[in-house]
Amino acid sequence: MFGLNPRELQKQLKQLKRMGIKVDQLQNVQRVVIELQDRRVIVEEPEVFVMEFGGQKLFYVAGNVKEEIGVKQAEERTETVVSKISEEDVKFVAEYLNISLEEARKLLEEAKGDVALAIEIGQTRKR
User: What's the rounded Cα separation, in Å, for the pair 43 and 55?
Assistant: First the structure.
């Protein structure tokens, strides 16, 4: 956290705790998206810490910015992915997972048209 060695980190956490600040690290964070008026900042596989004090939560995000794209570009990318999903793929995923066509389409959209990934996501959620 904050680029400190483990001993220094423990020292800092104890100081924060004494000040009444609770610090937790969110686990398994895949992506953080910050939407600005004219663009989106995307941080892949970030470290995310939540600090709570005074009834407020402060999120600390550390990581490398993978993409910084204009909102229009992001919308165009989404439209392109959605338009590339064929009805044949939707039917295949629906039949394979025994789900509705609508659910299959949502999985394919989430997987950006990747049939194998859509099936994997669907199977994971069924467990």
Answer: 27
The residues with which 68 forms a beta bridge, in sequence order, are 41
- The per-residue pLDDT for 111 is 83
- Decide: 92 and 72 in contact? Cβ < 8 Å: no
User: What would the two tokens of residue 13 be?
Assistant: 């956490």
Q: Are residues 20 and 51 in the same domain?
A: yes
Same domain, 14 and 65: yes
More confident residue, 96 or 9: 96
> CA triplet 18, 22, 25: central angle to 5 degrees?
130
CB 112 within 8 A of CB 83: no
Both 12 and 44 in one domain: the answer is yes
> For the whole model, what pTM was predicted?
0.46
In the structure, what pLDDT confidence band is assigned to residue 112 with cuts at 50, 70 and 90? confident
